[in-house]
Amino acid sequence: MFYEYAGSIHCHSRYSDGSGTIKEIIKKATLAELDFVILTDHDTLAPLFDGYEAWYDELLLLVGQEISPKSGCHYLAFNLNREIQGKDRIDYQNLIDEVNKSGGFGFIAHPYGAKQPPFMIKKGNLWTDWQVDRYSGLEIWSYMADWVNHVNFFTFMYYKFFPEKAIKGPSSKTLKKWDEIAQKRHVVGIGSTDAHALPLPFLGFIKFLPYEYLYRTIRTHILLNEPLSKSNLHEDKQKIYAALKAGNCFIAHDIIADSSGFLFSGETKNRDYLVMGQETTFNQMVNLRASVPYQAEIQLLRNGKIIQNINAKKLHISTNKPGVYRVEVYIDGQPWIFSNPIFLRNN
């Protein structure tokens, strides 16, 4: 049995370039019935130092940092107790190592970038150094990047009022890179909103992709072996961060349908239980199972290639082949759920 918690990762406040105060963000996240929110303001941990990291009734607010070099290679860093300077840096491996040495861990943000305003033609904020190592994972699906990459100057207002029509799912380049890296080492995928809720030019009373909307879209669901205490901040924080770092989580676009209860797991011949994010040496038959709360198209992938595709609520397959296995789920053709892999390594 797992305890499941859904959260929104990668959120900006007035401490950097977001429009919301911390109190506003807490209110919007509570209304969206999130279990946790992770703030990642650019190049600052000020909300942490100002004491905002805490439980607010049923919502846990955590504070990370989006380290934002001017080059555009951004890095989401969690579990830090000091700010990491990044504006003028191009030494990305040293940046990653500095986060790790500080007791933190991190994810490469929007790896293949997003089109830049005002004309939304050229992409910016791309990660360019794929020789780096020792990062925990990639931001696989960012609502903001997905939205802006399917919008242009002329369609902006249409998709502002009908944002879901612009959402196509994680980019094929990002998924290909994730699968490629996973062949060599453990790598985690997370989902995010990259929420800013900025006012529209000349229409300041209208927010662009407001917090209350985004918090109902792409969420990262973590799986824990024991419940959060909702009283011990340090203990609960470490549980959430341990699950993210291990990949005991999945990404879901919950505005389509509530994904709570999804599970991708495995069991070896020796009755060893596996859950997404886990890695084991492969030397015997493994039973892999996926279950979803509603009937949907379930795809099982091995090393980035689809090996089974069924329309059902459950998928089961026995395999004697090593590989990196993960699940994608679609409802009426719309991308819904992306699991983290189960890594079955060759001896």
Structure report:
This protein is of the alpha+beta class. The relative contact order is 0.13. It is globular. Helix content is about 20%, strand content about 40%. The chain has helices at about 20-30, 45-50, 90-100, 145-150, 155-160, 170-180, 210-215, 235-245, and strands at about 5-10, 35-40, 55, 60-65, 75-80, 105-110, 110-115, 125, 135-140, 190, 200, 205-210, 220-225, 250-255, 265-270, 275, 280, 285-300, 305-320, 325-330, 335-340, 340-345. The protein has an 18-stranded mixed sheet that branches. Strands 7-8 form a two-stranded antiparallel ribbon. The chain contains eight helices and 22 strands. Strand 3 (about 55) and strand 4 form a beta hairpin. The chain folds into two domains: about 5-255, TIM Barrel (Alpha-Beta Barrel), CATH 3.20.20; about 265-345, Immunoglobulins (Immunoglobulin-like).
Task: Give short descriptive properties of this protein.
Immunoglobulin-like; 347 residues; two-stranded antiparallel ribbon; 22 strands; 2 domains; globular; alpha+beta; single chain; TIM Barrel; 41% strand; 18-stranded mixed sheet
Based on the coordinates given, report the CATH architecture of the largest domain: Alpha-Beta Barrel
Structural class: alpha+beta
Mean of all residue-level pLDDT scores: 94
Q: In the CATH hierarchy, what is the class of the largest domain?
A: Alpha Beta
- The end-to-end distance, rounded to whole angstroms, is 30 Å
The CATH H-level homologous superfamily of the largest domain: Metal-dependent hydrolases
Write down the domain tally. 2
Helix content: 10-25%
* Coarse shape: globular
- Run of helices and strands: EHEHEEEHEEEEHHHEEEHEHEEEEEEEEE
Report the C-alpha radius of gyration, rounded.
19 Å
- Binned strand content: 35-45%
List low-confidence stretches. Answer: none
Biggest sheet layout: 18 strands, mixed
Could you tell me the CATH topology label of the largest domain.
Answer: TIM Barrel
